Task: inverse folding
DNA sequence: GTCTATACATGGATAGAC
DNA sequence: GTCTATCCATGTATAGAC
């Protein structure tokens, strides 16, 4: 039984790094980069300032660590759904269902990323979100094109991709701003279906 | 010729209030509320701090003035398009065309509002964006329902409204983040058409 | 690795002269 | 109405002891 295992076994104690990471994630998400102070982060983690600077170098360091961890998680999810079988329509439903669900369970982090990505740089260090965003975009576009080749869809692939992503973003945004009025997974499915209906190829009846 | 007219006639001089307003609008939009300092605002306006506090009370005062002016402008536009004639499809195209165009010409302000509305409260005073957002949402929903009654559309009115708004937001967001890849008005029209196609009622052929 | 104490900068806001 | 000078709180970051 080494030292790490001993530390892990204690009461509810995780390592200091983990506590700092968790505290920073919550505060950055709830207050934004500028408004979340180092003082508050260390207070919530139950340590003092030098501990944070020892482990993460500076405020920017722990900020990057938090964002990177969240994005890695997101990419792993998308990657997992990417290689499923089935019709293009089914796979798009699965993909967006997964994304909707993931965002739904991490609204705070989504809110933070959203404001950093789309909003003015609020004194926050630049961070590369594009990799993850492009990943999702390209995955959707790929499935749409496969659907075209298979004769499922017709129309402008880029326009269809944007319409699909827009439907997803709109439902997430609604949840961010008016949780009471937000749609659930079924409601999101109906919004998605409006778009999918506009994509499908007409068949002689 | 009164005193105001004389002041207006001078070189490029507008009133001090107007210069402060313009400087604040730019800086809030480019840096966010917290990161835009009073010092920078007054420097850009070519005056000193007490002037700002004399005219607007405090930082929050000029911030509210900037946002209120922008929202009033937006609501006036939506109101103007609201009472047009034509098919539901045509009116939706006109409405979103107007909104897309307006946002396009004020990207900085849109960016600011976006981050305040969807993002974490970055130390910024609370501000009521809901009035304007609901206004657009309700206008779209109303036209959609009229389209249903007229036999133009079929389906879930709420889902269709969200799909339309999502298409619009997606194109604006794209412009905010990747101007190079952004779609123009025609491209936006195509995205809108994907959704509208999914809304329309099938006719026997 | 973690603490106390502190240096140092910035930012919001005001007093008081003009 | 506008200026100069200044107050004071907060925030990032570090020195140095343990």
Result:
């Amino acid at each position: 039984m080494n030292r790490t295992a001993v530390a892990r076994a204690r009461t509810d104690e995780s390592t200091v790094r983990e506590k700092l990471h968790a505290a920073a994630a919550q505060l950055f998400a709830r207050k934004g980069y500028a408004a979340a102070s180092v003082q508050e982060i260390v207070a919530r983690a139950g340590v003092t300032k030098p501990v944070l600077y020892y482990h993460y170098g500076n405020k920017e360091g722990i900020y990057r660590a938090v964002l990177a961890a969240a994005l890695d998680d997101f990419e792993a999810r998308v990657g997992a759904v990417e290689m499923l079988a089935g019709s293009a329509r089914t796979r798009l439903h699965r993909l967006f269902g997964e994304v909707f669900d993931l965002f739904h369970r991490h609204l705070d982090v989504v809110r933070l990323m959203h404001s950093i990505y789309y909003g003015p740089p609020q004194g926050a260090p630049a961070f590369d979100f594009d990799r993850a965003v492009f990943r999702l975009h390209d995955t959707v576009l790929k499935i749409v094109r496969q659907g075209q080749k298979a004769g499922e869809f017709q129309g402008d692939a880029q326009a269809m991709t944007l319409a699909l992503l827009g439907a997803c973003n709109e439902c997430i945004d609604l949840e961010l701003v008016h949780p009471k009025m937000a749609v659930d997974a079924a409601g999101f499915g109906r919004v998605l279906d409006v778009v999918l209906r506009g994509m499908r190829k007409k068949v002689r009846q």
Remarks:
- Chain A touches chain B through 51 residues (CB under 8 Å).
- DSSP finds ten helices and no strands in chain A.
- Residues 37-39, 49-50, 53, 58-59 of chain A lie near DNA strand D (CB under 10 Å from a C1').
